C-alpha cells in the first residue's frame, strides 16, 4: 500500500485507507480515525464529525508540531491519544483506530484475542495489549492507551470502546488492524465449533523461518497467455480481498503457464493493490528477476508437478473455513449438491506440511479432492482454471458459514449416501 519513498501525500493515504476500512465494514460513518506523523513532527489526521464513507482529501487535517491546525474541519476528537502514542513510541508513524465488530466484542468482554491461531496473525499483529476505559477524547484515555503502547504493545484493545494499532507506515498499521480483526472474527466463529487449537512456539518458529530459495532469471517477451493469466489473477485476488476471502498480508494465488512454469503472487505486497507486473513467474528452480515469490511458491510448485490437471491454486484464509481449520470440527460439505459437486470430501492437512521442502502437500489435494483445510493456516483450493479455483473458494467459505449458522439452529443433516452416489453419476465425479 505504500511507496518506500513516501511519494503519496498523507491526505491521500488517509483518505484511501479510510475508504477501504469503511468499504470492508470495519468502521461506521461516525466511528474511527486515522493519523500519520510526518518527518517534521506534524500529525495528519481524519477530521471530527465528517462522514467516513465520503471522505475527501480536503477533509484531512494537519496539526503542526507547534499545535496550530490547518484544515477546514477540526481534528478528530481522539487526537489526544494519537499525540500521546506518538510521544510514547517514536518508532510509530501511523495509527488506526476503529470499531470493527469482532474486536468490539472482545473489548466489551474485556478480553484480548489470542493471535496464535495462525502464524501470519501472530507475526503481523505484534504484541497485543489492553487499555483501561476512559472517556473518549479525554487526556486520561490518551494516558491509558499510550502507557500500553509504551510497554511494547502494537495492537491494543480499548475497554468498552474498540481497538488502536500502530505501525511504521499507514500501510503497515492497516495490515496490522486487518489481521487483528480477522483473528478476532475467526476466534468467535471457532468458538461455535469447539475447543480452539493454538500454535506452539516451535510451530510459530517453523512458519517464520521458512524461505523460498530460487535463482533469478529474466523472462522473454510475454505471451498472450501470460498476459491473460496476469490479468485474471490480479482481478480475482482483488475480488477475493473485497469479498473477505483474502486479506492484505496473507494468502497466495497462482496459475500454471506451462509444464515448467507458473505465475504466483509476491510476498509482502498488499493483495488488493497488486499490479500485473507484481506477479512473479517461477520456472523450475528460478524465479523472475527483481521479485520475491510468495513463501508458499514451493508448495504451489509441488502440486503442479504432481497433478498435471491442476491449472490454478489458492491458499487463503476466509474466516468461516479458517474457523474449522483451528478446531477439530469436521466441515461437512455433503450439505447441498453444489457443495459436494464443487468440493467433494474435504481433507485436512496437518500443521506445517505446506512449509516442508519434500512436496508432501501435493498428497493432500488432487483433481478428485480439489480442496483441503490447512490446520491452523486456512485452506488450499485447486482448480482447472483461475475462475474454477476462485469459484470453489467461494463455495467452500459459503458452505463453512452455512454449517456454522446451521449449528445454531439444530442438527446439521447431511445428504444420504444414495443422493451422493446420484451426484457422482450425474456429474461424473
UniProtKB/TrEMBL annotation:
Domain Class II aldolase/adducin N-terminal residues, every copy: 12-188, 231-404
Coiled-coil regions listed in the entry: none
Cellular component terms (Gene Ontology): cytosol
SMART domains on file: Aldolase_II
GO molecular function: aldehyde-lyase activity; metal ion binding
UniProt keyword Signal, yes or no: no
Tree of life domain: Bacteria
GO aspect biological process, one term: pentose catabolic process
Protein name: Class II aldolase/adducin family protein
Organism encoding this protein: Roseiconus nitratireducens
Lineage of origin: Bacteria, Pseudomonadati, Planctomycetota, Planctomycetia, Pirellulales
Amino acid at each position: 500500500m505504500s511507496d518506500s519513498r513516501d511519494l503519496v501525500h498523507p491526505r491521500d493515504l488517509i483518505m484511501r485507507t479510510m475508504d477501504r476500512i469503511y468499504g470492508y465494514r470495519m468502521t461506521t460513518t461516525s466511528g474511527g480515525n486515522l493519523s500519520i506523523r510526518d518527518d517534521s513532527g506534524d500529525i495528519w489526521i481524519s477530521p471530527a464529525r465528517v462522514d467516513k464513507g465520503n471522505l475527501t482529501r480536503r477533509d484531512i487535517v494537519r496539526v503542526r508540531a507547534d499545535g496550530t491546525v490547518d484544515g477546514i474541519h477540526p481534528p478528530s476528537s481522539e487526537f489526544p491519544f494519537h499525540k500521546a502514542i506518538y510521544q510514547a513510541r517514536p518508532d510509530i508513524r501511523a495509527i488506526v483506530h476503529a470499531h470493527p465488530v469482532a474486536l468490539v466484542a472482545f473489548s466489551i468482554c474485556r478480553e484480548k484475542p489470542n493471535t496464535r491461531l495462525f502464524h501470519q496473525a501472530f507475526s503481523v499483529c505484534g504484541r497485543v495489549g489492553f487499555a483501561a476505559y476512559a472517556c473518549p477524547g479525554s487526556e486520561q484515555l490518551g494516558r491509558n492507551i499510550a502507557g500500553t503502547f509504551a510497554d511494547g504493545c502494537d495492537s491494543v484493545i480499548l475497554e468498552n470502546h474498540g481497538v488502536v494499532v500502530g505501525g511504521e507506515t499507514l500501510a503497515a498499521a492497516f495490515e496490522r488492524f486487518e489481521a487483528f480483526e480477522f483473528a478476532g472474527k475467526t476466534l468467535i466463529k471457532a468458538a461455535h465449533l469447539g475447543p480452539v487449537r493454538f500454535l506452539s512456539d516451535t510451530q510459530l518458529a517453523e512458519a517464520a523461518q521458512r524461505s523460498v530459495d530460487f535463482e533469478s532469471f529474466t523472462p522473454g517477451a510475454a505471451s498472450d497467455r501470460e498476459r491473460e493469466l496476469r490479468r485474471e489473477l490480479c482481478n480475482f485476488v482483488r475480488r477475493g480481498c473485497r469479498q473477505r476471502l483474502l486479506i492484505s498480508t496473507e494468502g497466495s494465488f497462482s496459475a500454471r503457464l506451462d509444464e515448467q512454469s507458473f505465475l504466483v503472487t509476491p510476498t509482502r505486497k498488499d493483495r488488493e493493490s497488486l499490479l500485473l507486473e507484481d506477479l512473479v513467474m517461477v520456472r523450475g528452480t528460478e524465479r523472475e528477476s527483481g521479485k520475491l515469490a510468495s513463501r508458499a511458491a514451493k508448495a504451489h510448485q509441488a502440486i503442479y508437478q504432481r497433478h498435471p490437471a491442476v491449472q490454478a491454486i489458492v491458499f487463503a484464509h476466509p474466516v468461516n473455513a479458517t474457523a474449522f481449520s483451528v478446531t477439530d470440527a469436521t466441515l461437512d460439505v455433503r450439505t447441498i449438491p453444489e457443495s459436494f459437486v464443487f468440493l467433494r470430501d474435504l481433507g485436512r492437512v496437518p500443521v506445517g506440511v505446506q512449509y516442508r521442502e519434500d512436496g508432501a502437500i501435493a498428497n493432500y489435494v488432487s483433481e478428485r479432492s480439489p480442496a483441503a483445510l490447512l490446520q491452523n493456516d486456512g485452506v488450499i483450493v485447486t482448480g482447472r482454471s483461475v475462475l474454477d479455483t476462485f469459484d470453489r473458494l467461494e463455495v467452500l467459505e459459503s458452505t463453512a458459514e452455512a454449517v456454522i449458522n446451521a449449528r445454531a439452529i439444530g442438527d446439521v443433516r447431511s445428504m444420504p449416501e444414495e443422493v451422493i452416489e446420484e451426484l457422482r453419476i450425474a456429474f461424473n465425479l
